Amino acid sequence: MNYSKFHFGYNKRQRNGILFLVLIIVLLQAVFFFVDFSSNETINLPEEEIALFQKELDSLKAIELENKKFKVYLFNPNFITDFKGYQLGLSIDEIDRLHSYREKGSYVNSIKQFQEVTKISDSLLNVISPNFKFPKWVNSKKATQKDKFTNSPKKIIVKQDINTIKASDLRIVNGIGEKLADRIIAYRSRLHGFSFDNQLYEVWNIDKEVIDRVLLRFEVVKPPVIQKININEATFKQVLTIVYIDYELTKKIFNYRDEVAEIQTLEELKKIDGFPIEKFDRIALYLVAE
To answer: Is the pTM of this model over 0.70?
Structure first.
């Protein structure tokens, strides 16, 4: 067997294969180079499909932008770091105040307390406080305290009639001593009894706050029955005894009565020059025109 001949024939076939492959590559390159594969044909898509595609594209863009935004999650404001505080918009002084407060072992337990400690502005507080998250025990404590006040039985005070009490009864009110109690009872006598609760504010030289406390325990339960004076028959002295009428007003009333001969209704008194119209209801408790 001639091994050299076999070996030569194998190399020749190999060379022929390589030449064939090279020829194919050259032909393909010539085709791509000389043949125009481009097309002038325009593909027209329906406007609805274009709009839908654009909408989906815009939606994807919006999602991408949203993902790039800085997000703030709920957090406990007691543990704001320098970097976190900077991100939230706090100044260095505001962050330092919080850290100084925490170094003392104290905790911020409410939005209001956070502002008191840091002294941040209302505008910034309104922006970041919705993200505050305090421990459950803080909220539970607040709820317990609220229930303590709202659910606790209230002591009901049954008010006494201001027209039947004694001076000693008034002294249970804070701010009412012996002299003030006697002064209230004396004024009640001049009025022939209180007809309205707010007549107590007319008592001389007693602070409004003290009378407010009196009215928490006492009120006009039964108005007095006052014997009214007929203005057309009354004497000068009788009219002058009325608490709300002084000497000058008494003269004007009698001058008017002399002019008209007879007063038909008490409403006529309002025509008198200088008549205290704001006191008409009080004066009408003691007078009648008959």
So the answer is: no
